[in-house]
Amino acid sequence: MKPSIPQGTRDFSPVEVRKRQFILSTIKTVFELYGFQPLETPSMENLATLTGKYGEEGDRLIFKILNNGLHEKKDADKAKLNDEWSKLLEKPYSSSVVTERALRYDLTIPFARYVVMHQNELAFPFRRYQMQPVWRADRPQKGRYREFWQCDCDVVGTNSLINEAELLCIYQQAFDKLTIPEVTIKINSRKILSAIIEYSGASDKAIEVITAIDKYDKIGQIGVRDEFIKVGLNNSQIQRLEYLVYFLMKDSQNIIDVNGRNVRAIDRVEEIFIESNIQIGIVGLNELKQTLNYYDVIKNENWRNKIEIDFKLARGLNYYTGIIMEVTTGAVKMGSIGGGGRYDDLTGLFGLKNLSGVGISFGVDRIYDVMEELNLFPEALETGCKVLLINFGGENELYSLQILKQLREANIAAEIYPDAAKFDKQLKYANKRKIPYVMLLGDDERNNKTVSLKNFTTGDQQTLSVTQSLNILQHE
Amino acid sequence: MKPSIPQGTRDFSPVEVRKRQFILSTIKTVFELYGFQPLETPSMENLATLTGKYGEEGDRLIFKILNNGLHEKKDADKAKLNDEWSKLLEKPYSSSVVTERALRYDLTIPFARYVVMHQNELAFPFRRYQMQPVWRADRPQKGRYREFWQCDCDVVGTNSLINEAELLCIYQQAFDKLTIPEVTIKINSRKILSAIIEYSGASDKAIEVITAIDKYDKIGQIGVRDEFIKVGLNNSQIQRLEYLVYFLMKDSQNIIDVNGRNVRAIDRVEEIFIESNIQIGIVGLNELKQTLNYYDVIKNENWRNKIEIDFKLARGLNYYTGIIMEVTTGAVKMGSIGGGGRYDDLTGLFGLKNLSGVGISFGVDRIYDVMEELNLFPEALETGCKVLLINFGGENELYSLQILKQLREANIAAEIYPDAAKFDKQLKYANKRKIPYVMLLGDDERNNKTVSLKNFTTGDQQTLSVTQSLNILQHE
Fold this sequence. Notes:
The structure is a homodimer of 476-residue chains. Chain A is α+β, with helices and mostly antiparallel strands and 476 residues long. The first copy, chain A, has two domains: 14-63 and 105-373, BirA Bifunctional Protein, domain 2, CATH 3.30.930; 383-474, Anticodon-binding domain (Rossmann fold), CATH 3.40.50.800. Chain A has 17 helices and 17 strands. Chain A has helices at 14-33, 47-50, 55-61, 73-89, 108-117, 162-177, 190-200, 206-214, 216-230, 235-252, 263-275, 279-298, 364-373, 394-409, 423-432, 443-448, 466-475, and strands at 37-38, 44-46, 64-65, 101-103, 126-135, 147-156, 183-189, 256-257, 306-309, 323-329, 338-343, 357-362, 387-389, 414-416, 437-440, 450-455, 461-465. In chain A, the strands form three sheets. The first copy, chain A, has a nine-stranded mixed sheet. Chain A has a five-stranded mixed sheet with strand order 14-13-15-16-17. In chain A, strand 13, helix 14 (394-409) and strand 14 form a beta-alpha-beta unit. Chain A is elongated, with a radius of gyration of 29 Å. Chain A starts with 13 loop residues before the first helix and ends with a helix. At the A-B interface, helix 1, strand 1, strand 2, strand 3 and helix 5 of A face helix 1, strand 1, strand 2, strand 3 and helix 5 of B.
């Protein structure tokens, strides 16, 4: 039998694990700096917790787990009942297909479930971050996996736009620390989108219009117009939608600069909303401005990345109700590497009403691919162990073990080749493992109580006292 | 709908996550010091990879995942084929129960599968550690979960007993760092157990005898004898088994001290093996001695924990073939908190023969319970955020945001209460979150460019310059 792993899943080799950990721990440090706290939920949720939360398509992509009937009285009872039904119906009944559990599909629904279950113990506003795998039975393809990591932070129980501003800072600081270049954080408001749709007189087709606008990056301006036509918008509706969308795009090359340039566009939109008395649009614009004002106070002047208003930003058919944001990099051709926004009633799904929240997510797999392509990972992540002790056997092995003990006591990651194998074989091992130093401990070294230290990169070899070698290895 | 989580699974609150992370990162640091490298495998494995590896009982406890038929052509084909069979057989055929994937049951089989799949790229001996959850459909009970973490390190491709000695060191150093008291590392050899059984003339009942001896901690000496009788051993067999077992137990209070005391017992066992010409026993004893010799060379003199030979140690019906070890603590009533040993042909299951390995495992959940019961976690893990800025609204909110920015730039984890809520409510929040400091920034502070810093534990409150407050918070 030739072993394999399921389609759409991955093994992570040592260097891949280290690089992924580097991303996760960098983001974690930022979350902690902003007062967010870690949370972990089980991989399995009750099926009832998940179904109906992700739309029809989502429901189909949930991985369901078979009950292990023998171990649950409840299941045994069900099976018995099914048997009786079978007799009544005079046909066999498949009693084995009982699924009550499923694999986590995202981190947001389990978070909402957790908040509702623990509402009486939690301090609100509750700020949590969560970094765990999720599973989706999507058709596997390049960059899309059936098991992948999400990395979210959310705060619930507060309407303050300070939260939105802080999330912008978290994106800034995290991508800055990860040294990813040409990052743009786009921001918009679902309220403004709704207002634009209301203005165009297409509120009855709001979902279709948002879906069409959401495809802009893939199909462009003409493609979006085709979609508008396809869903049955009339000319006047399309003209009004495009008036706002085009106006903003033309005037500012798809973008409105936060720092004052082209603010005319945003003012013009506000005028339109006021003229047409579209309250939700006025509120949306005020929220957007207030968020950016807060951001300006708490931002660090050295952050390199841009914040840009983009009225085309829609964030798909998610549950967002207020400010939305999305992160992209211009350095690599790749979709968004992060996104999020405000949702007004997430915990309402589980019976806890009126708890507004806002959160963002980091696309760990895509961030990994970007950093790999641009060679941004610190070189140190390539190596684990610092030095390999060559094993010459017998008395020399014993001497090597004594040195090994001292290396580890000096906190230097070290290993000995466990057998007195051929010298070449041992060197080859060090090379394959990318261990940067080897130590040769033969008769001379043992008799003189010295070590020979070979730098595997430069090829340099020195005979040193034990203390000298510890010093070099500690400070290199 | 009242939300809940599946039986036998757990949510981990912020402080629980931090404590668990503390255990895992402590152990990880030790693994890395000894040159082990991280590996991660997918949560799902192909069902064929797992079935037949854990015995009949184990197979039943594997969580199987339902295929999502719509998304796989293969499944559609199968369903069609099943339909045709149904017609031929003239009875309905359940085509929906297709399971080809299952959740990881342990970390060892996926590791073996990985080694076989990547045998041409890996540097052997391959040293890896792995810390991931596993799933078992066991009946949930106190301390037994359906999702729990394993934390393993293994090396394959070497017969050297240096590996066994290093694993003893890893146990020593990790439990030392975790400050768990009264730790005992018991060591034995499967070869010695086999020899004892051979000496007693019960080799045809070896599995039953090992199973009985394995229960010693639960049922005691008399209980084990009852088991011997139950499986059909005769008096002479029981006498011979007990001769060795009792002899060793009586002579050394169940234990043989490594440091020379009571070595008479081990010598007596060797004499018996030589007299009876039981080669496997002589080899086993030599391996045990050699392991302890290696250990003596590389051990740190300050380690507090005991290594003890225990010929009763069996480690259940696992695949072990050589040295075995198990860790317990006398400070808390609890089963073993770690265990492992040598296995000679693990990868043989997947077609790669003659690759000997040895590994150990840490029982993370039990270690957590021990540390919690003995109050061993560092107090700092209780808090995340260092300081809460009270929000007095308006101009003062703006001033607070300016201070917040400076706190974070000084790398101090800080947050502002996002709304200008009642003072009491904000203090209550800080208290519930166990945030150690609050900062009060009202009219006076804003006008004088100062801050009022309140230590939440002592109740002390000081008016300070911003720089002074940063200093205090950085160094507390």
